[in-house]
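Quick one:
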Amino acid sequence: MQASITLRDNPAQQYVLRLADSCLILSQRLGEWCGHAPVLEEDIALTNMALDLIGQSRALLTLAGQMNARAGGDALDEDQLAFLRDERDYVNPTLVELPRGDFAFTVLRNTLLSTFLKLLWQRLQDSSDTELAAIAAKALKEARYHQQHAADWLVRLGDGTEESRRRVEAALATLWPYTAELFEDDAVDAAAAASGLGPAGSELREAWLAEIEAIFGEVHLALPGDSAFRSSGRRGVHSEHMGYILAEMQYLQRAYPGGAW
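Output:
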């Protein structure tokens, strides 16, 4: 069985990994819709969005591996970082690892996250790291499409039948408390903001709320109030669902190290 890799303690790398892991784990959840979406067009659309996110994650993981080498550690590639870390070394927000849920749950989660990612990619185009800025310029185009697609479906479901409306409201009650984690700053955010690598999460909150409120306004959904609950995936403390994702993701690479087709 392949052993886990070890990373250097590097705030810049952690900042990049948080974004990479967010894209990677969300892509796994969206990929679960392949063959299960309510209509064929959505089966293709959700799978393509999962592929977009994997592409973004690949670029970010490659950059993170290079940062690890520059900090005096091993030069790691995207596959090692994707498949050979322990659970506590993944730093995605808990929101992306929650189970797939029904279609309304997926649509709402995509709306919340694609809006956040779009705003983050916009800011990262001005990153002091030229490679990260180049990744952001490409990813921004994809995030804009993801947001529009999800928002269109949210309006259709929210203004649809009583059942589709009920499911949207149930998804909102479940998902909203997890959004607070996106905007909680720590030392990693502070270092990124100070160096010009990228914005702290709190810097995006006002713009994110404004865009979400505008989308919700089209379907007469009110923004829920703040919750005392705080998830902690960005610090490596995950929900019980993360282990199942990693067991599926990592099995082949762990069992057959360096295996190739």
